[in-house]
Every structure is written in structure tokens, then in C-alpha cells.
Amino acid sequence: MWHSITKLKIKPNAATWQLEVICLMLSALFAYTGLSKWLDWHGTKAALYNQVFPIWMADVILYGLPPLEVMVSMMLLVSRWRYLGLWLSVILMTLFTGYIGMVLTGVFGRVPCSCGGVLNSLGWWEHLGFNLVVLVMGVWGVWLKKRETRSET
């Protein structure tokens, strides 16, 4: 089998494996968060309405974010859409992390309840740390994908 792989000039290297692992981990995270919001619709709605932004924005997030997260999850698994999926994951994580940063710096005057799902057990500081790790992974993935695309041309 290895001979056929090398014959096709497909040589797995560290960057390829890193990109695959990053995309799989991000895909799993976005699939989990999107699907968990759908499965706990009432809990998600209650958590969003407890946040500091207006109700109309909570409604936009409630109906728009879960399908967007699932779509990003699928994009990360398809080579043709992977670069865009990586960028969307970086944008989403930047927004999520920025929001947590604003909560922690007291911009809103109160600290709303935390997110649901597995991250529900994390405090705001731990959530910030988790998001920063995921954000760095996404940025690293964008860089790896861009480098991979340049080397193919």
C-alpha cells in the first residue's frame, strides 16, 4: 500500500496530519455545539435571552447559529470547502472569544449565565482559555491549508 501512495506522489507529512487533526477536532466541536443547541432548544433559548444583547439579536442567533455551526462542521470535512470552513471557524471563535472577553472585563455591567453543553461546567475564565486554544487551532489550520494550497500550484 505504501508503494502505491508514494507512486501517486501523495506523501503524508506532519503538516498534512496536523491539518487533518485540526479539521476533525473543529468539525467535531462545531457539530456538537450546533446539534446540542437544536436538541436543547428551550435551554438554548433561555440562555440566549439571559445574555446582554437585545432580544432581536438573541432570536437571530437562536435561529441562525446552530445551522451555521453544523454547516461549518461539514465544510471542514470536505476538501473543496475546507479553507472557507477554517476561515468561518476562526471568525466564529473570534466573535465568541471577544464576547467572553467583554463579559470578563465588565463591559456589560453584569455577568450572564454561561453556555450550555459540555462547556456549561466551565467558568468564564476557563471558557476563555478553551476558546483561545480553539482559536489558535483554527488560525494554525488556515495557515497550514494556505501553505498546502500554495505548494500544490
TrEMBL record:
Pfam families: MauE (PF07291). Keywords: Membrane, Transmembrane, Transmembrane helix. The keyword Cell division does not apply. It is found in: Membrane. The chain crosses the membrane at residues 12-35, 55-77, 84-108, 128-144. GO terms for biological process: methylamine metabolic process. Residues 17-144 form the Methylamine utilisation protein MauE domain. The keyword Zinc does not apply. It comes from the Bacteria. InterPro entries: Methylamine_util_MauE (IPR009908). Its main location: membrane. It is a multi-pass membrane protein. GO terms for cellular component: membrane. This is Methylamine utilisation protein MauE domain-containing protein.
